[in-house]
């Protein structure tokens, strides 16, 4: 979804720490043929190295990749094209190592890169595609009847979940569960679902939201095992780790929002929840140890607001920092996002903040900031991907001038 970014005053965040390595000193290597028919990508390598197999590099993307989405494991970068294909790239230099072509056209359901099951899965229009991450080959596909399309995908514990519905969407959808290894259908259920809501799966359950309440189903049978109680409003579900949080809807046109609710994953009943601000919730991430970092902004203009951190385990608000709307993730115990676009001294950089200490942290818990890169500028609408596995790197995808940059985690 395209984000609106405008300059609105001076940034209030004081950035502490040193800039990362620029990773731009290497020569350009020969052009590599594009696997999806776009312009030929080139790769710029860098002599910079870190402990482990990941390296700093930049790589251009084909137009099909730039209109899709990218993810990563500890071993490689994977991009899904807007035609349903896949491109695998080396973690060492960004070069294309394998491709799985496809020729579909339509809305994308996103990308799941599931390292545990060695699968990457994407849905484009009415076709669900899966690639084998180990061999770089097509694993399986599923074709929907004409008039239906995939809208969301998820995966956990050897099962891929895919949500499909009539296109255009009518409010009723079907949740399909298939075996990740070979695509064997396991079950399907007709459900109520709200456009844009995530599929969350962990600990033997899969969770869906319809804009009012959350429903939990058994991963093996698809049977409903819990539903949000009456009176607990859930316009939007934020998930991460093993946590579920209901917030106000980011697409609401009103000036008031439902209170934030931390839900028990077993019963879906509300747990003690830190009090949130009166601003509009726009996007959020949750760490494995239960820190929710939520971007909240004015209802009329979400281009500037604050990242607010909440400790879900101990029911308290931790910290807040000024920001302009940007993508974010969690890596190595730190919150990772981009510096405000209207801060002239530090814009266009990746910044990491200790999840518990916040922007006032000191020593090893102090905020850290990368150098400025072309890919991290606000006008590129950058997306940040954390490979995980203690790689010490993040990957930034720049959409405007289609490219990737792997850089050391600040």
Automatic annotation (TrEMBL):
All copies of domain Pyrrolo-quinoline quinone repeat, residue ranges: 90-223
Q: Which residues form a coiled coil?
A: none
Query: Any signal peptide, and if so, which residues?
Result: 1-19
Q: Which domain of life is it from?
A: Bacteria
InterPro entries reported for this sequence = PQQ_rpt_dom, Quinoprotein_ADH-like_sf, WD40/YVTN_repeat-like_dom_sf
Which residues lie within the region annotated Disordered? 23-54
User: Residue spans with biased composition (Polar residues)?
Assistant: 36-51
Q: What is this protein called?
A: PQQ-like beta-propeller repeat protein
**Taxonomic lineage of the native organism:** Bacteria, Bacillati, Actinomycetota, Actinomycetes, Kitasatosporales
């Amino acid at each position: 979804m395209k984000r609106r970014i405008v300059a609105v005053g001076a940034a209030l965040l004081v950035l502490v720490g040193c800039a990362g390595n620029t990773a731009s000193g290497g020569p350009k290597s020969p052009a590599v043929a594009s696997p999806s028919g776009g312009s030929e990508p080139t790769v710029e390598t860098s002599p910079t190295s870190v402990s482990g197999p990941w390296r700093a590099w930049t790589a251009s993307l084909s137009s099909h990749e730039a209109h899709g989405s990218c993810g990563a494991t500890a071993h490689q970068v994977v991009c899904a094209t807007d035609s349903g294909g896949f491109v695998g790239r080396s973690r060492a230099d960004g070069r294309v190592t394998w491709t799985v072509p496809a020729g579909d056209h339509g809305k994308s359901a996103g990308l799941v890169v599931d390292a545990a099951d060695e699968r990457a899965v994407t849905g484009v229009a009415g076709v669900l595609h899966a690639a084998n991450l180990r061999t770089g080959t097509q694993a399986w596909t599923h074709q929907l009847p004409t008039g239906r399309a995939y809208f969301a995908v998820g995966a956990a514990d050897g099962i891929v979940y895919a949500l499909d519905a009539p296109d255009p969407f009518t409010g009723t959808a079907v949740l399909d569960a298939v075996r990740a290894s070979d695509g064997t259908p396991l079950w399907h259920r007709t459900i109520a679902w709200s456009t844009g809501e995530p599929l969350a799966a962990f600990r033997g359950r899969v969770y869906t939201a319809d804009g009012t309440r959350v429903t939990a189903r058994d991963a093996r049978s698809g049977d409903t095992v819990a539903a949000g109680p009456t009176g607990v409003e859930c316009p939007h579900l934020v998930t991460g780790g093993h946590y579920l949080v209901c917030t106000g809807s980011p697409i609401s046109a009103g000036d008031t929002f439902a209170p934030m609710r931390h839900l028990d994953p077993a019963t879906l009943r509300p747990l003690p929840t830190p009090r949130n601000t009166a601003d509009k919730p726009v996007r959020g991430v949750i760490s494995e140890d239960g820190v929710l970092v939520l971007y909240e902004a004015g209802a009329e203009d979400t281009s500037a607001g604050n990242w607010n951190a909440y400790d879900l385990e101990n029911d308290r608000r931790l910290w807040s920092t000024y920001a302009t709307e940007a993508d974010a993730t969690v890596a190595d115990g730190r919150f990772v996002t981009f510096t405000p676009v209207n801060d002239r001294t530090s814009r266009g950089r990746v910044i990491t903040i200790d999840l518990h200490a916040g922007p006032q942290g000191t020593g090893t818990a102090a905020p850290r900031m990368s150098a400025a890169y072309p890919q991290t500028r606000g006008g590129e609408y950058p997306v940040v991907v954390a490979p995980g596995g203690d790689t010490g790197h993040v990957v930034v995808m720049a959409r405007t001038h289609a490219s990737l940059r792997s850089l050391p985690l600040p």
